[in-house]
Amino acid sequence: MSARLRKLTVVLFGKPGNGRSSTGNTLLGQWKFDAGFSTKGVTENIQRETCCKTTEKYDVEMDVVDTPGMFDRGKFEKNALKLVDIEKK
Ligand SMILES: Nc1nc2c(ncn2[C@@H]2O[C@H](COP(=O)(O)OP(=O)(O)OP(=O)(O)O)[C@@H](O)[C@H]2O)c(=O)[nH]1
Ligand SMILES: [Mg+2]
């Protein structure tokens, strides 16, 4: 690993419709996560995307993890467990 390379993981949590996917797309600088208004919630599954940024000090490899809304359709526990599995890889 280069001395100037930094790895960062951002996990987006929150209530349904509060802007997680939009925030993720802004961080990535790309439209990777579906975002928009839906009473049912747009994001149904955990999705992980990676981007690389060069800042004044470091090259940053950033993983952004989008998640379904907390308390959404009772899926929170299941998705939290999936997240733990993803982080183990
Ligand atoms: N005004 C404003 N609207 C926003 C902002 N972020 C997101 N939105 C809007 O809010 C709505 C929901 O945004 P999403 O990014 O899909 O929110 P989410 O938390 O991923 O939603 P779900 O996956 O459906 O639970 C969309 O219509 C966005 O355009 C913000 O910072 N300001
Ligand atoms: Mg979403």
Overview of this structure, please?
About 10% of the residues are buried. The chain has one domain (about 5-89): Rossmann fold (3-Layer(aba) Sandwich). The protein has helices at about 20-30, 75-89; strands spanning about 5-10, 45-55, 60-65. A three-stranded mixed beta sheet has the order 1-3-2, with helices on one face. The protein is flat. It starts with a strand and ends with a helix. The mean pLDDT is about 85. The chain is about 25% helix and about 25% strand. Strand 2 (about 45-55) and strand 3 form a beta hairpin. The longest helix is centred in the last third of the chain and has 13 residues, at about 75-89. It binds guanosine-5'-triphosphate and magnesium ion. Magnesium ion binds next to helix 1. Guanosine-5'-triphosphate binds near residues 21 and 38.
